[in-house]
Amino acid sequence: MTAACEQHRPGPASRAAARLGGKVPVLDTRRLQLRGPRIYDFGAFADIMTTDRALFMGGPFSRKHAWAEFTNYTACWMLHGHGLWTIDAQTTPTAGFVTLGYEYDDPEAELGIFLTEAAQGFGYAEEALLAARDHAFDALGWDSVVSYVDAENDRAVRLMRLLGARLDQTATDDLDDEITLVFRHEKGGC
């Protein structure tokens, strides 16, 4: 079922939303474009969050909870000046999402990624994370950013190491959470 809030509603409000979305920085890489999320991207977001693809993120979630996550990450742009990007690949529009954002209980902004099943295995995660991380360091002037990774998510742990992130044991211990590892990406150190 598609809720009314998920549907595009033409008119002045949708044009205003498009203008606001146009303020989100667009990041171009060799094969990807990271752009601001649009209402029609929610279907792909929900397909990730309501399935086993969200197991290492505490899911799968209900569609309603997925909507809350989507709107939270999107609102981060207005509240913090960073947030969720939609990843468009050359052959796969809405291939996934990369974020510099916050969950409610996060002590620091997170560099995170979620890909659709069709986009997995092409190196898009590494490429998108590097672009977002560079944006955090160069455009936002951050010295570090963290990635919260489920300890059992071997693929994500390997990806963090590939990106040069280091396990931050102090930040991990401070979470008081036995399943989440904190990987720190540092400017000049990655």
For the biggest β-sheet, the strand order reads 1-2-3-4-5
CATH homology superfamily of the domain at 24-142: Gcn5-related N-acetyltransferase (GNAT)
What's the Cα radius of gyration?
16 Å
- Looking at the structure, the CATH topology of the domain at 24-142 is Aminopeptidase
Strand count, sense and barrel status of the largest sheet are:
5 strands, antiparallel
- Element order, helices and strands? HEEHHEEEHEHEHE
Intertermini distance: 43 Å
Give the overall silhouette.
globular
Average pLDDT level:
93
Number of helices: 6
CATH class descriptor of the domain at 24-142: Alpha Beta
Strand content: 15-25%
Please give the CATH architecture of the domain at 24-142: 3-Layer(aba) Sandwich
Task: Tell me the number of strands.
Answer: 8
Structural class: alpha+beta
pLDDT < 50 stretches: none
Question: Which bin fits the share of residues in helices?
Answer: 25-40%
